[in-house]
Specification:
The protein has about 150 residues and is mainly alpha-helical. It has 6 helices and no strands. The longest helix has 25 residues, at about 55-80. It is rod-shaped and about 90 Å long.
Length: about 150
Amino acid sequence: MARRSRNQFLIYSVVELEQNRQSVKSKRLTGQRPGLQPAAAPPAMHCRQTLQRTAPETIKETIKKNKGAENTNVMDRALTGDAGNQASLDIDAGEFERRVVKVFEREGYGYEGLLMLSAGELEEVFERLCGGHLSFGVAVKELLDSYRTARGQV
C-alpha cells in the first residue's frame, strides 16, 4: 500500500487502482458506499433528523411571560411590604440605577423619566434601600409613584 506523508496526496499504483475497481463493483452489488477512502466515522452524538428550531412566536411568548413574571414579582413584594423581612442589599449606586432604568423602560418612561427625578430623591431612596428599610420593589415603586405625580399621571 502506498504511504502518504503530511501535506502530500495519496498516490495509488496501477495494481491498487484495479483492486479498487473490483471492490467498488462488489460494494455496489451489496449496496455499500463505493470510494477510495473509507466512510467517515459516525458522529459522536446521535442527532435527530427531525429536529426543528423553536418558532419565533414561541420564543417571544416565553420572553413576554418571563417579563410579566418579573413585573408581578416586583409589584407583589411592593404591595405586601416585604421590606422589613429583607436584609440590606449589597448593591452599589450604579447597579441600582441600571436596575431602576430597566423597570422605567419596561413601564415606557425610559431613562429620561428617571432623569426627571431629583438626584436627592434618588439618593434618599438608595440609602434607605442599603440600610434595609426598603426592598428593591418598594424602592422602585416609590420612584415610579414620584415620577407619575411629577408628570400628573396618578
